Amino acid sequence: MKRRCLMVILMLLLLLAACGDSTATNSSASGKIKVVATNSVIADMAKNVAGDRAEIYAILKPGRDAHDYEPTAEDSKALAVAQLVLSNGLGLEAWLDKTVQSSGTKASLAAVSEGVNLLKTVQGETDPHIWHGPDNGKIMADNIAKGLAKVDAAGKATYEANAASYKTQIDDTSRQMKGLLDAIPAERRKLVTNHEAFTYFAAQFNLKIVGSIIPSFDSASEPSAQALTELVKRIKAEKVPAIFTETTINPKLAEQISKEAGVKIFSNLYGDALGDASSDGSTYLKMLLSNARNIANGLK
User: What is the DSSP track for 150-210?
Assistant: First the structure.
């Protein structure tokens, strides 16, 4: 009798173990993939393309500048368990390679700038701020879909459909931007910002970049006194209507130049990052429209 009872108990334990293994396997197969995006713009795009198939972690949170950022232990932990890392590339994330290496991650790496027609700044550097041209935003969405499908083949059709829908939204936003910017008179279509981040914006919407307070795509660079003097001369000679400051850069130097040049200041373009959840730049699409509206108002 005792032997029979022991046999029954053993069989029950084996059945429970088998059920446990089956549950674990199903849970793993149906779990969301873990994706790390280097900045808030790419993270927002990835959320739109991935839908509910992925968890998106942004290394750079809204309002944080990529040029002077130092990753944290939390970032390294997120990278260590990620299956996909989405970066901008083009020298924007100088800290990324070392961080990826130190995290020991086995994640697939995808640069969302692949296939973009790259443009030079006034100073002759390649401008990495590709997302300010909505046409580039559509290329980025496709690259994100490809990256996601590489690590989650079962979701390929979903990612492609989501990217197509998102690109339609980008096109609609682009049309709204064009409507705002087309109202700027030809002689006033001249742009001066905190740093050289709007090359693609200017190219797509037919604006002339006269210069920037920081003559580099790297907002951590420091302008020389001579460069600032030359900028004031160009602003006066070109009759630039306004100087635009950016949310992630201290506006004091721009305000000083505006006084010397005798032009007004328009604040809070979103250059290197999205704004917080309550701002006009809380998503990529909102950011594009907010920048267009701000620039149109400043140059009219």
Answer: HH-GGGHHHHHHHHHHHHHHHHHHHHHHHHHHTTS-GGG-EEEEEES--HHHHHHTT-EEE
Helix (H) or strand (E) holding 267: strand 264-269
Nearest CA to 100 out of 81, 119, 114 is that of 81
The answer on 190 and 173 residing in a single domain is no
- Rounded to two decimals, the pTM is 0.86
Total tally of structural domains belonging to the chain: 2
- Residue 209 has phi, psi (to 5 degrees) of -90, 115
For residues 120 and 202, give the distance between their C-alpha atoms in angstroms, rounded to a whole number. Answer: 12
Query: What residues have CB less than 8 Å from 84, skipping those under 6 apart?
Result: 33, 34, 35, 36, 54, 107, 108, 109, 110, 147, 148, 150, 151
Residue 14 lies in a domain: no
- Tell me, yes or no, whether 219 lies in a domain: yes
pLDDT beyond 50 at 256: yes
Residues 148 and 214 in one domain: no
Give per-residue pLDDT as tens, 116-146.
999 999 889 999 999 999 999 999 999 999 9
DSSP assignment letter at 122? T
What is the amino acid identity at position 267? S
